[in-house]
Design brief:
The chain has 26 helices and no strands. The protein has 2 domains: 218 residues, Serine Threonine Protein Phosphatase 5, Tetratricopeptide repeat (Alpha Horseshoe), CATH 1.25.40; 176 residues, Tetratricopeptide repeat domain (Serine Threonine Protein Phosphatase 5, Tetratricopeptide repeat, Alpha Horseshoe), CATH 1.25.40. The two termini are 25 Å apart. By secondary structure, the chain is mostly helical.
Length: 533
């Protein structure tokens, strides 16, 4: 059978998946077993403190590279108590507060970080330590949330200078690479910072193949549709080399998701959710570790792409049973809002979507207006697509109300998504009212707006891609050829998305291309063979 180029790429990826699952991952595990010594045991950053402090610092920095901020905060605090004259442990405590690739710190967090760094004044420090602490002070120099990105760039520029001064210190280079990612512009489609960081990390990996920071930050460097394959090797290794970290086990799924390798994503996130539950108990956290919820959303996404609807329903029940988390972070808010929305929308259960309820009524939703918008978007799309126009208009009004209340300092991706959600609900209301041409224009505009900024790492993908919804509307309006073009565009950036495959199959059949329709159906059958179809 001669495959079209798009379906050929999808099919080859499915074939490659079997090879990766059976042999490559096993090979990575063997490599890890043969190289268990950690590459940073030689005192990362060369701190000038006692041998005991250096060993503890090494352990904490290793976890810091896997973004285990809850644990590193505890460890650096304990080190401060036991060896208060060691300046770099204050640096570590401040680094645990700033999460450069997640959400910007609050004003109170910025104050705490500055206080930690101020305690290094007067302590004995070598020149490198002075430089590293002064660089971090640049970020914690203000509590003005509007200047977070400016201060992140200032820190990155300082780290570039330190990297030049200490070219043989690979830890400095790794933290410099992270700073480039933290300072990157989400609208920069040239990915200048990401390419620079990724190139540096790839070179370092030749000498330090199992370093968690190198593996982790390489994944983040190339966590984009057109670049994801550049980090596939690092993704295959990372979880194996950092088995004690829920975030480390989860991170490979960023690349697996980008490439539509659902079985690998499922495996990665199953491991991560298990580790998060175990860490919750081991660390006596006051609630479920929030990293576990982050992995649940990625797990939900992969289950739905493989039509594991029964498993997805069980996972949703599991999420609903988590009534308290260790911190009510933006990751928690996103998962509580997005996972239930995904469950109904990906199954195209429009009536069910229109009646969607929030999982936790006692959550601090007022702090996360953009997350509430996800919930009302699901209800609004569900209502509009099931003919409940008045209900859809109510949901649209609520989204607009939430949008008006968003803080100016919100992450660009989140604010843009709220606008996209508002436009899409309005478009489907217009379509249901018979104003289809206006609806199509607005839907296309929403798709272009969503494409203008890359997704945030908090999500495996949009709750429903705007371009996919635009394609759905084109197909309903009788523009099957145009719909097929849009479904293919979705599959280019989100390989093996189930509803895009289904739409492409239906559109191909509608224009009389039975060969292409069958090719898409074959891919769907292969992808959902383990699911509840």
């Amino acid at each position: 059978m001669k495959l079209t180029p798009l379906v050929r790429r999808i099919s080859l990826k499915r074939s490659a998946l079997l090879v990766i699952s059976a042999s490559v991952i096993a090979g990575c595990a063997a490599d890890v077993d043969q190289n268990q010594e950690r590459s940073q045991r030689d005192s990362p950053l060369g701190i000038s403190c006692s041998d005991a402090a250096q060993s503890d610092f090494s352990d904490a920095v290793e976890l810091l590279h896997s973004f285990e901020y809850v644990e590193t905060s505890k460890r650096f605090a304990a080190q401060i108590e036991h060896e208060p004259e060691c300046a770099m442990v204050y640096w570590g405590a401040a680094m645990s507060i700033w999460h450069p690739l997640w959400a910007p710190p609050s004003q109170s967090d910025l104050q705490r970080g500055a206080q930690y760094l101020a305690q290094t004044d007067g302590l004995q420090k070598n020149p490198k330590e002075v430089a590293l602490i002064d660089a971090l002070k640049l970020f914690f120099a203000s509590t003005d949330l509007a200047t977070n990105k400016v201060r992140a760039r200032a820190y990155s520029e300082a780290m570039e200078s330190i990297s030049s001064d200490y070219p043989d210190d690979y830890e400095v280079e790794i933290f410099y690479a992270l700073s480039l990612l933290g300072a990157a512009d989400p609208r920069d489609k040239s990915y200048l910072n990401q390419h620079k960081a990724g190139s540096m990390l790839k070179a370092l990996k030749e000498v330090h193949p199992l370093h968690p920071g190198i593996l982790h930050y390489t994944i983040h460097s190339f966590d984009f549709p057109s670049l994801a394959d550049l980090a596939l090797e690092e993704a295959k290794v990372y979880a194996q080399s950092a088995k004690n970290s829920a975030h480390a086990q989860h991170m490979p799924s960023h690349i697996f998701t980008r490439m539509g390798l659902w079985e690998l994503s499922l495996s990665s996130n199953h491991d991560s959710t298990k580790s998060a539950a175990e860490y919750t108990k081991h660390a006596n956290l006051p609630g479920h570790y929030d990293e576990g919820l982050h992995s649940i959303d990625y797990l939900m996404y992969a289950m739905l792409q493989t039509a594991r609807y029964g498993e997805a329903e069980t996972l949703l029940e599991q999420l609903g049973s988590i009534q308290k988390t260790d911190t009510e972070s933006f990751k928690v808010a996103f998962t509580y809002a997005a996972s239930p929305a995904r469950y109904v929308l990906e199954r195209r259960a429009w009536d069910e979507a229109s009646e969607l309820k929030l999982l936790r009524s006692d959550f601090l939703w007022e702090n996360f207006g953009w997350a509430q918008s996800i919930h009302h978007f699901a209800r609004g799309i569900g209502a509009a697509r099931s003919g409940q126009l008045e209900k859809a208009k109510i949901e649209l009004a609520r989204i607009r109300e939430l949008q008006a209340g968003l803080p100016e300092t919100i992450i660009p991706y989140l604010s843009i998504e709220v606008q996209v959600q508002s436009d899409l609900v309005e478009a489907w209301v217009l379509h249901a009212q018979g104003e289809t041409e206006n609806a199509l224009k607005l839907s296309q505009s929403a798709a272009n707006l969503e494409d203008s900024v890359d997704k945030h790492p908090v999500t495996p993908g949009e709750v429903l891609p705007a371009r996919e919804l635009y394609a759905d509307m084109l197909l309903e309006a009788g523009y099957a050829a145009k719909a097929l073009e849009q479904y293919r565009a979705v599959l280019t950036t989100s390989p093996n998305r189930l509803n895009a495959l289904l739409g492409a199959a239906q559109s191909s059949a509608a224009i009389g291309d039975g060969v292409a329709a069958k090719e898409y159906r074959d891919v769907i059958a292969d992808q959902t063979q383990f699911g509840n179809r």
